[in-house]
Amino acid sequence: MSQPDYFEEIRALYEKFRKLESSTIRLILDRWSDRRPLELTIDLMQDVLTNFSRLKETSDAVIRYLKDRDWRGAIVSIVGEYGSGKTQFGQILLRRIEEEGIFSRIITISPLRDMKEVMLEALEASPAEGPAVLIIDEVDQLLGELNKGSRRMIEDLADTIRGVTEGGHGYPPMGSVVMLLSKRAREALRSDRALGSRLMDRSKELSLSMSEDEREKASKEALNKIIALWMAYYDDEMRYAIRSSLDRIYPFMRRVASELS
Predict the structure, then answer these.
(1) Which segments of 113-245 does DSSP mark as H helices, in order?
(2) Which of 42, 53, 182, 199 shows a CA-CA span of 20 to 30 A to 88?
C-alpha cells in the first residue's frame, strides 16, 4: 500500500493561510495555545475556526430572536459544555450585533470584580436612545459562591439583568442580555427557585453541544488547520522540515485528536 500524501490533505488550507500576514498567523497560534478567543473579522474566523458553521447558525438564530423584539427585553441562554466554543461564540455574536448597528459589549464574569458596576458602566457607554445587548461570559464562575451558600454576586447579576431587560417607570427595557453558560450552570440556576424565575424561566435557550462524531471531526479539522498555519508561518527551511516529517507527525497527531475528542 502506498504511503498517504498528508500534505495533499492540507495543501488548500496552506495556500489560503500563506496569504495572511505573519503577525496575523502568530496571533492565531498564540491565542489558540492560550485558549483565548480569536478577535478577528468574521471572514477570517470562518477560514480559521473548525466549528464556525455551527457558531454562525446559532448567532443567526440569536440575531433573529433579538430583532423580532427590537433588541429589547430578551434574555438568551447559550448552553454548551467545556470546549464547545461559548467564548468564541461571544466574539462572533458581538461582531454580528455591531454589524446591525446595535451597541454591544462582552462582560466576563469574575468573582474579583463588582459585576453590577461593570454592567452598569457598559450600559452608560451605550447610546442614550438605542438598545444595548450585553453578552455575559463565564457565568459558571459564580457557581462556587452559590454552592457555598453565598448569593450576593449572583443576586446582583440577576437583578441587573432583570433591570436591563424589564425597564420600569414607563420606560422601555434598556436592551437584552445573552448569557454563555455550561449545562451545569443552567441546571444550578434552574433548580434555584428565585434565580430560575428571574432568569431561566424568561430565557430563550440555544445549544452549542456537539455529538461525539462532530467533536471528533472538529478535532481532526483543527489539526489540519494548525499544521497548515505552522507551514504558512515559518520560513522555507522550517516549512520543508515540517513537510518532510508529516508521515510521522500527522498520524500521531490524528491519533491524539481521536483520543481527546
Answers:
(1) 115-124, 143-147, 152-166, 183-191, 193-198, 212-233, 236-244
(2) 199
